[in-house]
Amino acid sequence: MSVLRTIVHSSRALVTTAKDAVRFREIAQVFITHGFGWVVAQLRLRRELQIEHDGEDLGRAALNSPDTGKRLVKALTLLGPTWVKFGQILSTRHDALPPSIVSELQSLQDDVEHVDIEDIHAQLERNLGKDWRAHFESFEDEPLASASIGQVHQAVLGDGTKVVLKIQRPGIGPTIESDVNILHTIAGYLEEAFEEAHIMDLRGMVRDFAKSLSQELDYQVESNNMERFRRNFAASEDVRIPAVFKALSTSQVLTMEFIEGKKFDVVIDEGEAPDELVRRYFNVAYKMLFIDGFFHGDLHPGNVLLTPDGRLGLLDCGMVGRLAPSRRDKVIDIIHAVINEDLEALARTFFQLAIPQGHVDYPAFEADAIAIAEQYLLGVPLAQIQIGELFQQLVGGAARHKVRMPTDFTMMFKAIITTEGLAKAIAPDVDPIELARPFITQMITERYSPERLKQQATRDLIAFSGMARTIPNTIPVLLDELGGGRMKFGVAPETLALQHKAADLRVGRAIRAALSIALLICGTAVIGVAGLPIALWGIPWLTICFWGAALLLNATLLRRKNILPQD
Q1: pLDDT tens profile 359-369
Q2: Given 3.50.30.20, 1.25.40.10, 1.10.510.10, 3.40.50.2000, which CATH number is that of 117-170+218-321?
């Protein structure tokens, strides 16, 4: 019934929004054309969407062909920015997708045309007013860069300050909103149809993706992110974050300081990326992740500048990730376990981070996690450890035990994989794990410092105090519910059957124990009775028979104890 209810509700929601229905039909047709008709058929919306399959391959076998990844990339690219970005998120899910598809998804890039300059001017007029040109001494119509959501133009303010304007593509917001609504619907259907989609929490992924995308669409959010990064790196001489001109910025236009420099990918292509520069890059990424718990979600070489004075300029701060202190501690524990090759601690901490989807056989989970970790850690020099790939394999192994990682860790894994991938590509001699060691040591030292322990004790005391204050009010309510028969307790049938079996076994044991004691007493009592045949050492045969019977009963007691179900 729950599946039927989901389908009915989703269908009604879809057909009542004509624009979404038209777009949904277009999306479905693109996937069918690229050989994913069988998946579309599982949505069971052919009639509502008026989809014609036109003889396209509907077989599940088409999903396992060697070119599946390439076909998926083509389909996502054709569908536009929302689907490209979601494909980039899927490229981090080694637990749910085959390596061949993940490899292809990692190649996804925005492939967009420039926005017409007349449309850019109109967008500036809507956001900065009809006299927007009065704020600038000059404005370059030729864009510096074009991306799926925005386009970047260089300008000069009236006082001679060089700036860049990030201008949102006109009309992109409603298109993305419609696509996200459709993604939510598809995720719901796929979770109902495929257990794999449920285990990977596809709906949770879409929710987090939608939240991240909505923040990218609001340039005020990016402005606030940049200000926070500037505060976090205020004492650093290695990093430069562009200043934002708030008076010339809105939710669709972001005016910021122009930073001279070469993009990191250009520096790499020219062979000018010394190991020291890469170490600096890692130090910046690790400070964000381990110290601040607020990190750049897309720190690839195209979003990093090398300034003339040797500093790193960070660009495009719309996508960020956050780690609460408690979760940051767990990540640090995992890295610390990797450094020390403590495989049991690694498995235990990874499990503590995870979300079980039902009963989990922890010994089996731990054994699999250790087996995976051994392949990547034991006997491998720190410089050659592939921490990103290790995490991916651990997540995949966890999925086999019906355990998934929180969806907010997807961004963190993406950041780690991006950073590590850069090191392996351009600076194989740089050891990412060794560079992380000072940060891990610092965080563990601070965690057990007197001040941190005092803060934790204070928080715990406040929490327990709050719980204690509720007890006088809670207990009378519970007693009243019990007395009125409004509170009931239930036991699962299988649990009840086990309890009955255990009770029967315990009663039998008690009877046999009583008989055994009685036989021992009787056997002892007849010793010394005159006229009884003597067997050995003056002990009558009758006594030996009583004691022998008691010994046999004791033997059955021990055997029954071993098969008694545990509570």
Answers
A1: 888 899 999 99
A2: 1.10.510.10
